[in-house]
Amino acid sequence: MLHRTEGIVLKTDSFGEADLIVTYLTSGYGIVRTFAKSPRKIKSRFGSSLEPLTHSRISFWGKEDAALPRLTQSDIMQSFHSIRDVLKSFLKVSEIIELTLSFMPEMDASKKVYSLLVETLHAVDAGNDTTLLFTCYKVKFLEIVGYLPRLNGCGRCGREGDAFYLSHGTVLCKRCSKGYEASFCISPGAVHLYASLLGWSFSKINRIKPSEAILRELSMLLDEHVKYIMERNLKTTTFKIS
């Protein structure tokens, strides 16, 4: 059966001397791993369309339950080569790609996640504030996949609280937190930024102008929350630019 959809290349893995396993986030099928025949040869018909982050119209052949359908066509819509050319931007994009791959099962379509990634790549490609964009991506992505931390009140009773507990994934008030050790104290500014990122459409995010300290505070909390859920660090967060 032939399948047609749009997809973004998340990663590629070598297979044999000239073949590739290409992992896409697609609009119609979610995460899809495909087999690409001989794309590493000089005269490959796929050209540069299998470079990481490339947004393409693709076709692949295989039964619905096929573990590795064969990629038959890939036509570039947007290459996003400018992101790949800037190491800092590419590493940050790689981080949200790893996050996406870690939380999304294969062949489980989510148009919301797909649209969110496309919008993020276009915004980064246009030169917008990458730290704010990636923090926004994490917040909105975690909301879609059901792992959003609660910061706007105690997760047990709803009362106000300023301490976040990783083991609970929420802020707890003083009464409900007895017997537990807080992971972070969170400032009102970080809570307000969090609410803004959740409530505003992605196209308006750059109107938000948080201080570096508040943005760093929220970003660190999200990273620790993800680390606690996954029981490990994202590999891309450990890479340092010298």
| Structural class determined from secondary elements | alpha+beta
Rg over CA atoms: 20 Å
Any idea what the shape is?
elongated
Give the tally of β-strands. Answer: 8
List the strand order in the largest sheet. 3-2-1-4-5
Report on the architecture of this protein:
- The chain has 242 residues and is of the alpha+beta class.
- The chain has two domains: 2-79, Beta Barrel (OB fold (Dihydrolipoamide Acetyltransferase, E2P)); 84-151 and 186-238, de novo design (two linked rop proteins) (Up-down Bundle), CATH 1.20.1440.
- The protein is 35% helix and 22% strand.
- It has six helices and eight strands.
- The strands form two sheets. Strands 3-2-1-4-5 form a five-stranded antiparallel beta sheet. The protein has a three-stranded antiparallel beta sheet with strand order 7-6-8, with no helix packed on it.
- Strand 6 (163-165) and strand 7 form a beta hairpin.
- Helix 3 (111-125) runs antiparallel to helix 4 and helix 5 crosses helix 6.
- It is elongated.
- The model has no long low-confidence stretch (mean pLDDT 92).
Short description:
35% of the residues lie in helices and 22% in strands.
